[in-house]
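Hey team,

Filing this mostly as a record. A colleague (T.K.) asked me to run one chain through the structure pipeline before their review meeting, and I want the input and output archived in the tracker in case anyone asks later how it was produced. No errors, nothing strange. Just documentation.

Input sequence:
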Amino acid sequence: MSDTPKFEVIDRRKYKAEEEERETAQKTDTPPPAPPANDSTAGAREEQAAPASAASAKGPRLVTPEPQPPEGEAGDPALEAGMPPPPTAEESREQKTAYDASSQRLEDIVRAQNPGVGPQPQVTFEQLIQQFYLSAMIQMGAGAQQGERPRVDILGAKQTIDLLGILAEKTKGNLTPAEDRMLQSALFEARMAFLELTNMITMQGVQAPPPPAPGKR
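Output structure:
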């Protein structure tokens, strides 16, 4: 047996060749980097990709038709103005009953404190006409006392007379002959008084201020 040590010679070229083959295979499998694109191209690609991704994320969407207003309510001025719906017949009947009962209690209290006061007369359509007519005449200065300068509200009188005209127009064909005759007469007289007053104002024009009192400048 010899004491000379033995050495094993390893061929490094073989391992080097295998490493080179593995590196070449990795380079072949890896895709080449994309060429740099300008900002406009990149932005366009991102915009195209965003809707697609959002659509795929949301999935299918159920499209429901918009609710349509019930038939007969489209274009109703009262509903468009935000007005509440009218009361039902039952609600109106209950409210009228409660109103009559409350009015009767109030009348009983007044008659208990004033025994000489009789029952209040029922309000009629003729009283409504008289109310408008008297209001218009007072606004035109008819209620001034003797020697007192009348205070005229010509614009307020015009509105009151116009309300009386609307009342005549809306109640046409629904009045008794006596009610219609009274309404037309009141409207005619109020309009005539208005015409006379406005003609007087137009003829007088702007009045000059009164002269100063003696001893004053």
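Quick notes for T.K.: The two ends are 160 Å apart (CA to CA). The CA atoms of residues 140 and 154 lie 6 Å apart.
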